[in-house]
RNA sequence: GGGCCCGUGGCCCAGCCAGGAUAGGGUGCCGGCCUUCUAAGCCGGUGGUCCCGGGUUCAAAUCCCGGCGGGCCCGCCA
């Protein structure tokens, strides 16, 4: 792939270095190249070099350097000015045109995309939300980011497998199975999606269990503590009542059938054990309820346009014997210990080795406690099963690299996972397992909790966005198909998820997120539709041989430089997996394009060469936006 | 108690790692622009003690130290 902007920076660097050495001074060309930056304002030129960061002598001779560069008559430099210790360089229109035409005529629709010479096999495990409730907005962020990572590798030519880990064992599912069987495997009401309905059942069961537990405990408490417990019970009751308003029969039935339960929590625990053993008596109900939630989740993911290659069930993993194999292997490991009377790995000891820490990217200052592998009742813990799963992912897919897209709050268990793999002899796997961490999503005015059914679901946000989009279209007398509405809606949601750094907590305001205005995916889709509109109206092949060399002025030049920068931006985003950088670049590009579009007609341009130049800019914008959309997973809409 | 992350106009975010121009966008609010390629657009205006206090430096939103405020982790939960 050629990089027009890199070429430009090289060219400016050569001219500058030459001038500097003619003055008898020195400056490292690499450093110059690195420092070249986009000026904050158009009257500071097209590209700028901050001299103070090179040397003080250069600052003193700033004006001289500027004049000297100009006199060298480089093919790229038109004018150089020295303003407050900066060299501000105006670039020759002919140079940018030449570079852009070269790149676009050669690469066309693949402009900016680089394929790896030796493709990797990559596994991206993402979403993996527990099959006990619908996808909420936090899982939505996971889904969008995971899809982005998969796309980044696919666009680099890698072979990518997207896997969803269905966590159908453990206490959470046991609660759901308990409630589900107690009230006779209920059907969902017609107006509610199955996963939403079962999410309520799960939460109601879990809440009732907590209330029972707290009530018992409260009986033996005094004064303040009793009061605290009372308050907690009240809060649980209000959650339960909220659920009851949505599904009255469900809650009433559940209350009735759980009243007789002596020790609800113990019953749930024994269900968890039975599930892990694969007890036939509840296997049917278990599979049924998990499938019902998962099909609801799949429906949501389909709406988002996100698909998976493999659905891995935790119960199958356990049945395959891999989990017990992990425990056996651990027992013969040097790091095996008993911790709190339970079998464990002393990963803290391993983590003290600085070399291991570095190789496994264990965060500095992270204290690693021993990892308990199994409860005293013999059932394994989540991370133990995750060790087995990691091994499976590498082995089955022949993966060079595995991504676990998991919330940042799981930094410790993910570090333990890598250390455990290492301790068990899976050194390559441990080094090639990447925890792609993202911060949680907070919803304005709601403390989220799956166990309390307090969440904003992806489904409801999409519904809201579709409704809002439809309303807006209708108010303009445009009728859009349902498919188009969904594409606009889900793109708007993805944009929100991708425009904020994954490392930052996302505050989700449902009211604001459903806006479809400037600074959103819709704005970008609209920009692309405009560019496509011009090209289809023109209707002919672009003639690259007759393009005006001198026509890049004002906004045109600004736009050309932005298009020229695309391959670098794209490369950085793909390598560093920072979607937010691409989004802010696209916003700039769209802004410049729209501003230019408004004042400078393309089709109506009488001069053929100038018209062709403008068409190059339109086509460049189109390709850049389309390729960015491929990476971000935003839909192209032909009309908006 | 220990550790990690965050704090930038009313609201949301970029810039911080590799210190340098008058701190950028978006949104909000006020005003203007459709006989010309899509007005989900464009143009103009409004709005900031870069959390606070020290330090380093010719130069600090950026680096260092100490606070304050918010979030998260330190489970035989996931």
Structural commentary:
This protein has 640 residues and is α/β, with parallel strands linked by helices. Among the domains are: 4-91, Gyrase A, domain 2 (2-Layer Sandwich); 172-185 and 194-279, no CATH class; 458-632, Isoleucyl-tRNA Synthetase, Domain 1, CATH 1.10.730.10. Helix content is 59%, strand content 10%. It is built from 26 helices and 13 strands. It has helices at residues 4-22, 29-35, 56-60, 62-71, 93-107, 137-155, 171-182, 194-219, 223-246, 248-258, 264-277, 280-304, 314-319, 322-331, 347-351, 354-359, 382-397, 411-423, 427-431, 458-475, 482-499, 510-513, 521-538, 554-576, 579-599, 608-632, and strands spanning 47-50, 77-83, 86-91, 121-125, 159-166, 310-313, 336-339, 342-345, 371-372, 401-407, 433-438, 441-443, 506-508. The strands form four sheets. Strands 6-5-4-10-11 form a five-stranded parallel sheet, with helices on both faces. Strands 1-3-2 form a three-stranded antiparallel sheet. Strands 7-8-9 form a three-stranded antiparallel sheet. α6 (137-155) links the parallel β4 and β5. The longest helix is centred in the N-terminal third of the chain and has 26 residues, at 194-219. The two termini are 32 Å apart. The relative contact order is 0.11. The mean pLDDT is 91.
């Amino acid at each position: 792939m050629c990089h027009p902007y890199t070429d430009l920076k090289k060219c400016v660097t050569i001219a500058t270095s030459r001038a500097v050495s003619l003055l008898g001074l020195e400056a490292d060309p690499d450093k110059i190249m690195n420092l070249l930056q986009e000026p904050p304002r158009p009257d500071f030129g097209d590209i700028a070099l901050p001299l103070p960061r090179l040397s003080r002598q250069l600052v003193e001779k700033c004006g001289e350097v500027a004049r000297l560069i100009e006199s060298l008559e480089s093919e790229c430099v038109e004018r150089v000015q020295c303003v407050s210790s900066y060299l501000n360089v105006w670039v020759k229109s002919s140079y940018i045109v030449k570079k852009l035409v070269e790149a676009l005529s050669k690469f066309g629709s693949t402009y900016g995309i680089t394929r790896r010479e030796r493709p990797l096999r990559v596994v991206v495990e993402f979403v993996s939300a527990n099959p006990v409730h619908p996808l909420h907005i936090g899982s939505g962020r996971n889904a969008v980011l995971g899809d982005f990572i998969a796309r980044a590798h696919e666009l680099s030519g890698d072979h990518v497998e997207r896997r969803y880990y269905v966590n159908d064992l453990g206490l959470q599912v046991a609660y759901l199975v308990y409630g589900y069987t107690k009230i006779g495997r209920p059907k969902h009401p017609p107006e509610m999606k199955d996963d939403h309905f079962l999410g309520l059942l799960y939460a109601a069961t879990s809440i009732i269990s907590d209330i029972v537990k707290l009530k018992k405990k409260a009986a033996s408490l005094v004064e303040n503590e009793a009061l605290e417990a009372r308050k907690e019970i009240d809060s649980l009751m209000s959650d339960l009542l909220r659920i009851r308003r949505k599904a009255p029969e469900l809650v009433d039935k559940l209350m009735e059938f759980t009243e007789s339960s002596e020790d609800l929590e113990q019953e749930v625990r024994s269900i968890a054990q039975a599930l892990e053993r694969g007890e036939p008596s509840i296997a049917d109900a278990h599979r049924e309820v998990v499938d019902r939630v998962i099909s609801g989740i799949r429906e949501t993911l389909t709406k988002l346009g996100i698909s998976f290659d493999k659905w891995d069930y935790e119960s199958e993993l356990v049945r395959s014997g891999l989990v017990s194999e992990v425990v056996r292997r651990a027992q013969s490991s040097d790091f095996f210990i008993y911790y709190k009377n339970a079998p464990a790995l002393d990963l803290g000891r391993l983590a003290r080795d600085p070399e291991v820490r570095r190789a496994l990217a264990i965060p500095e200052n992270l204290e690693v406690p021993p990892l308990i592998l199994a409860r005293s009742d013999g059932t394994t813990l989540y991370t133990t099963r995750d060790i087995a799963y990691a091994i499976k992912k590498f082995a089955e897919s022949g993966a060079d690299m595995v991504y676990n897209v998991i919330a940042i709050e799981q930094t410790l268990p993910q570090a333990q996972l890598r250390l455990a793999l290492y301790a068990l002899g899976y050194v390559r796997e441990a080094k090639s397992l990447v925890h792609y961490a993202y911060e949680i999503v907070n919803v304005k005015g709601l403390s989220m909790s799956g166990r309390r059914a307090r969440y904003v679901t992806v489904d409801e946000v999409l519904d809201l966005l579709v409704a809002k989009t439809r309303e807006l279209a209708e108010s303009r007398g445009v009728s859009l198909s349902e498919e188009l509405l969904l594409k606009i809606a889900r793109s708007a949601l993805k944009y929100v998820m991708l425009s904020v750094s994954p490392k930052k907590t996302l505050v989700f305001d449902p009211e604001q997120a459903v806006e479809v205005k400037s600074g959103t995916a819709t704005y970008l889709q609209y920009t692309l539709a405009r560019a496509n509109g011009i090209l289809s109206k023109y209707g002919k092949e672009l003639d690259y041989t007759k393009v005006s060399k001198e026509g890049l002025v004002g906004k045109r030049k600004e736009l050309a430089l932005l298009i020229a920068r695309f391959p670098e931006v794209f490369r950085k985003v793909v390598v560093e997996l920072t979607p937010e950088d691409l989004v802010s670049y696209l916003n700039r590009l769209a802004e410049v394009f729209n501003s230019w579009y408004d004042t400078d007609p393309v089709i109506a341009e009488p001069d053929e060469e100038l018209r062709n130049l403008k068409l190059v800019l339109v086509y460049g914008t189109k390709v850049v936006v389309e390729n960015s959309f491929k990476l971000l997973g935003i839909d192209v809409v032909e009309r908006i």
